[in-house]
Structures are given as C-alpha cells and as structure tokens.
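Model: You mentioned two targets. I'll fold them one after the other.
Researcher: Yes, keep them separate.
Model: Target one:
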Amino acid sequence: MRIVSFEHEGQSRVGIKTNKGVIDLSTAAPHLPQDLQQLLQAGHNLSELLHPLVEQASDEDYTPLTELVYLPVVPNPPKIICIGRNYAAHAVEGGAEPPTYPEIFLRGAESLIGHAAPIVRPRCSDKLDYEGEIAAIIGKKARHVSEEDGLDYIAGYALFNDATLRDYQRKSSQWTIGKNFDGTGAFGPEFVTADELPAGMKGVQLQTRLNGEIMQNANTDDFIFPMHKLIAILSECMTLLPGDVIITGTPAGVGYVRNPPVFMKQGDIVEVEAQGLGVLKNTIQDE
C-alpha cells in the first residue's frame, strides 16, 4: 500500500496512491483518521484497512497526481531520529572509523518539506550538501525491543534528503544546527508499507542524483547498523511511538568530500531514488 500526504484546497489530506491517482480519504472514508500519524496511532494494519477502499472508490474520490501538492509523508512526527555514518564507506570518506555505536541526532518537524517543494539554501551559507537516505516509520509503540523482533515495529518506509549546511554542522561538536535549517529535510514522495518491500530494506540500492549526475550510489548491505539493530538500540533508551521517523544514514559520495567540493545552489535539481520507494525530487531555492 502506498500512502500520500498532500494538500488540497488549503487542507491537509491523506490518500492511497493508485495508477488512477490518489484516493482522498476525506471523501472515500471520512470515518477514518485523516493523517498518516493518526492512522498508525489507531493501531490499524494499513494494508488490510485501506485495500477495500481501492475497490470501492468512485471517480469523485480521486485527486489526479498532477494536482497534488505533496506534504512530508508524516507532516509532524513525534520524533525524527537521524543516524550518522551508518554506511561504512561514508564513514571512511569522511576520515572516521566506522562507529561501534550509532551516531544519533534529532531533526525538528519545522525543517521538513514534501516531494517537489523547494529545498531552501539559507542566506547565511553556501555550503548546502545533499544526503540521500531511507526513512523508516514506526508503526507501534516500542520499548526494549529485541533485534529479532525489531522489524515488527516498522510500518513502512519513505525517502529522505537530509540536506545539510556543512559549515554550520561543524560550528559545534554536535551536528544539530547544521541539520535543522528550515526547508532542508525533504521527505517523500510516499509512504510504502513494509509488506511491499524487502525485509528491513536489505539489499536495496539507493541513489542520489544532482542535475542528472549520479553522486551517491550504494546498497543498504553496507549498513553498519541494519534496521532491526537500530530499533533494538533506540528502544533501549527511548519509547518509540507510531509516526516516529528514523532517518537511517547516507552513503558515500556526499559533496563536501569531493575535490573540488560540490554544494547545491539556486536552480539545482536533486533526486533521491531507492527500490520500491519511487523518486524524491526537489529544486534548490535561495532564501
């Protein structure tokens, strides 16, 4: 099942993506929660819950894909937990040994944008870098989860571009400030339920392109901490809630390590693609 968060006639909506368009739940199923986070919090098996609506939907329930204004997959997540240096080759290219424990930082919801929205290059810096990633979305409350059970708590996945201001990232020993500028966390284009994808996204190729040129091209087999381990490690510390988002790390090929460095500028087009998750596409716009 593919679920899209979008804006229509000035209101936030959620819908089921099909070949015909998006089935708007506000008309097709007004009795259901009307955003993805609330659907997850209600404890539903989304595939079982929503599949009958695809058969029952009338033409009036559809919004054409060409009319969508995409929102972040989860517009206001309880937590956005980011994992740094989770691909071994990316750790090496940055001059660090692969970590023995995840490098963890947080993003705020105000930094999020949807598919096709502009990534904003702030007026204070020209060091805006791309970071294509896979996001895991939590489906049920998790605390003290074993590695063996870790994948049971992931409802689905989406793409993410953890666009980073490299100079601000290094102003502090913590990375938070460089990762939280407004309009820099592209999240989309759609949420895909875990049952439609490889378990734990294992063996999936992830690619980032800048103006059509391949910049990052790696396989999730290079994960240092696979999905099930991340759930176990994080839930040892904190309670994971439905709608929480885990940004699982970026592979080698980021712009700042290149010679000369490559940073994104006004008008650039950046795309992130992974098997089964579509293409997340955004244009860079100066503040």
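Model: Target two:
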Amino acid sequence: MNLETRDPVVHTLGVLEMAALLRELTAGLLTVDDFDEGLSALVRITRDALVGVSWCGFTALRAGEPAGVAASDPGLAELDDLRRASDSPALDAIRRREMIRAEDLGRETRWPTWTPRARELGVQGAISAPVDIDEQVIGAINLYAATPETLTTGHQLTAMLLAEHAGLLLAAVRDRARRAALAGERGSALLGDGVVGQAIGVIMAQRGCPAPEALEVLRSAATSLTIPLHEVAERLVSTVARPRDT
C-alpha cells in the first residue's frame, strides 16, 4: 500500500500511536542497566502497543555469536534464538542489514527449517528489522502476526523507526551497565584503600550500615562539599582520632 494514498485520519493516528510507543519505550528503558531486562521491556511494550502484532521478539548477537534473546510470549522464544534454527527472518535481517517481511508464511520458502515450526506455534506473518546497538552487539526486532496478510507496509515503517530508536536505547542500557560495573570495581578497590577504608569503617560504626552504603555516604559528602574523596576521608578520620578535651 502506498503511504501517500492512505486515509489522512488513519495516517495521523499511526503517527500518534508511534510517538506514544517511542515515548513509552524511552520511559521503560531510561533507568534500566541490565541488557536482558531492557530486551524484555522492549518486546513487551512493542507487542502491547502495535495493532495486528500478536507477538514480538528480539534476537541479539555479540561478535557474531548469539548474545541474547527475548520474547513477549515465552512459548515463542525459540523462534528468536539462532541456536535453535540456522535460518530465520531475524538472521536474514542481521546478515543483509535490511528489513525482512513475510506476509504469509503459508507461501514462504526462504526458511525451510524455521517456517514450519513458526506455523506450528501459530505465527502466520513476520517482519524482522535490523538493530544496530554498539560496536559489539547487533540484533533484530521481530514482529509476528497470528493471521496472514496482517503485517502491512505501515508495520514495516513502524519497524524501521522502532529499530532505530531501540538501538539508541539499548546502547544506553549497555553503557549504564558498563559504568555500573566499573563503579563497582572502583568501589571494591576503595574499600581497602588506606584512609578511605578507615573512613568507611567509621561511617559503618556510626550508622550501623554495610560498606557499600558507607562508601556512598562518603561520596555524597565529597560531592556536596566539592572536595576530593580522599580529603573528606582524611578529615573524618582525623576528627575521630583527635583526642577529646577532658
């Protein structure tokens, strides 16, 4: 169907629905720092938002190897898992870096292993769009329909926009995960770092809290006072060690 000939009201509604979907995706993934959790939110929100899409899945590869899979319906997760089939719309989308659309799997011959299993599970139409996440991870978002001829040119356009937005959001999720891991490593190092470790011990004793929480208290004080962490630690330790007047 030519998008230029569509009914203006229907086209406007599509634009509004797409904007709402992207807004909900952004809100859903904004604070997530676990990649698998991000994929799960992505497929669930997409499935619920798109009319005609019965299920949604995601296939991820890292350095050319399967790195993650998510499905809005766990019963269909195998369709997005490249370890279960050597051919699929998702794999074609990733390899060819282009949108793959199958309006009616009953007439489909491109994926002789994947298609029969998909039809057994109730899938009659599919669209896969490549998603670029970062220099290490790529993937495909997969839209599935329960009836043939349901997924239209409009769904293709939606999948293209969705893939672009999802790539940016998932890249941000991976970046937050890396930052959190790095902060954790630095925090572990600081726990045994001379005066900082001593200051953490003082805060733990005063507040009855665990070491990670004590470290956050110390960091918060350094930020509020705009002075280095080590200096805050030194001040705290020297204050506690200072003899009291009798």
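Researcher: Noted. Anything on target two?
Model: Strands lie at 55-62, 65-71, 100-102, 125-132, 137-145.
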